[in-house]
Each structure stands twice: as structure tokens, then as C-alpha cells.
Design a protein that fits this description.
transcription; DNA-binding; two-stranded antiparallel sheet; Four Helix Bundle (Hemerythrin (Met), subunit A); 2 domains; 234 residues; single chain; FadR family transcriptional regulator; mainly alpha; 10 helices; TF_FadR/GntR_C; Arc Repressor Mutant, subunit A; DNA-binding transcription factor activity; 3% strand
Length: 234
């Protein structure tokens, strides 16, 4: 029923095969999956590996334990969680793909922030922008402050789904942001460009101009990719 699992991909492979079976309808929503012992034998791995795979699927809302009865497929198991491989995300090609994703998301976020921002939001955005300069002046790379700046703009939209999506993507964007900021820090002209691009986003949001805000955010990410390519990162 299951393919044997290579040793180097144990728990991830077990979890993925279980997901494939659930998606194919082998284990329907509400049905009970085989015991750890049976799965261990079927996959040819230890019960610890099976337990780790099941734990991951529990955390993702795919499986749910029922006291004294076993592990069951949840009613919403067909709603697949979005995943990005963390190791893959640090590869050069993936960095550019992540920048494409970030461009699409953040353009809309900036647009909505321009429409919905309050005076309190504007103060928070200004403070977040200043924090980037402070981190860099203190000798840091400014990555965390950069991510926080963009999150503050997302908060100004008033849309919790923008915030959650950005938080999810930011888990993987930190690597890409560190690469871009390290590259930008090597050249004064790059660093100046980044600062001016951030200022343009903030200015458009302050003016309440959604089109200008979206264009400024979009241009910022385009330029980040361009600066990486100019530096020979590919």
C-alpha cells in the first residue's frame, strides 16, 4: 500500500504519503488512520518516525486524536496547508521566486494601507522606518527591522488575512531579505535607493493614494531583484 521510505527523508516522506492518501480519498474525512505500529511496519520505519509525521499533520489540522479511539482525519483535511521548503527557499532561484511572491502581496498591502490607514498607523509606520536606520547605524543588517516595517504596513490595512499571509511568507523571506540587505549594504548607492524606496511607499500611504502606494511597493521589490542581479547573484 505504501512505498518504503528512504532514510534521509523519513518523517517528511511519511507525512507526505499520508497526505497523498488523504487527498486521494483512501482516508476520507472522519475516518481513522492505521495505528502507529501498522504504519511503522507499512513504511518500514520506526514508530518514532511515524509519531513525528503524525504530529506534524496534527499541527497542520489534518489529523486529530480522539481519546481512546485513535487518530482520525479531520473534516477539513481537504484544505491543504501552504508549505515552502525552508532549505529550498535559500537557493538563488527560489530567492527570486520569493521576491515575485512578495511583490504581488506587498503591492496590494500598500494599496489597502493607503485606503485604510489611521493617524496612529502612520506614526507606527514612521517609527518602523526609523528603526531600520537605527539598526543599520548600530552595525546590524536591519533584516528584522525591515520585516517589521512591512508588517506594520500590513497592520494598517485592517485586514487580518493580509497580516497572516505576510507573517507566513516572512518566515521564508528573512533569508531572502538578509541576502538582499547584505548585498545592498555593500554599496552606498544601493543603500540610499532602498531608503528612498521605503520613503516613497510611506509617502503614498500618507497621501491616501492606493495606486501610488502599490506602484511604490511593486517598484521596491523589482529593484531589490535588479540589485541582486547587478551584484552577480543568480
Amino acid at each position: 500500500m505504501f512505498a518504503k521510505v528512504p532514510a534521509n527523508v523519513l518523517s517528511d516522506s511519511v507525512a507526505q504519503q499520508l497526505l497523498d492518501k488523504i487527498e486521494a480519498g483512501v482516508f476520507a474525512p472522519g475516518s481513522k488512520i492505521p495505528s502507529e505500529a501498522l504504519l511503522s511496519e507499512a513504511f518500514g520505519v520506526s514508530r518514532t518516525v511515524v509519531r513525528e509525521a503524525i504530529s506534524r499533520l496534527k499541527n497542520e489540522g489534518v489529523l486529530q486524536p480522539q481519546q481512546g479511539r485513535g487518530i482520525f482525519v479531520t473534516a477539513h483535511a481537504s484544505i491543504r496547508p501552504l508549505r515552502i521548503d525552508a532549505d529550498e527557499a535559500s537557493l538563488p532561484g527560489s530567492v527570486f521566486h520569493l521576491l515575485d511572491l512578495r511583490r504581488a502581496i506587498e503591492a496590494e498591502i500598500a494599496s489597502e494601507a493607503a485606503i485604510n490607514r489611521s493617524e496612529t498607523d502612520l506614526v507606527a509606520i514612521d517609527e518602523a522606518l526609523a528603526a531600520i536606520d537605527e539598526e543599520v547605524a548600530d552595525g546590524h543588517d536591519g533584516v528584522r527591522a525591515d520585516v517589521a516595517f512591512h508588517r506594520t504596513i500590513a497592520q494598517a490595512t485592517g485586514n487580518p488575512y493580509f497580516i497572516r499571509t505576510l507573517e507566513f511568507v516572512s518566515q521564508y523571506l528573512e533569508t531572502a531579505t538578509r541576502i538582499t540587505r547584505t548585498n545592498e549594504a555593500r554599496r552606498e548607492d544601493f543603500s540610499r535607493q532602498v531608503h528612498e524606496e521605503h520613503q516613497a511607499i510611506v509617502a503614498a500611504i500618507r497621501l491616501g493614494d492606493p495606486l501610488a502606494a502599490a506602484n511604490a511597493a511593486r517598484q521596491h521589490i523589482y529593484n531589490a531583484a535588479r540589485r541582486l542581479r547587478q551584484a552577480g547573484f543568480a
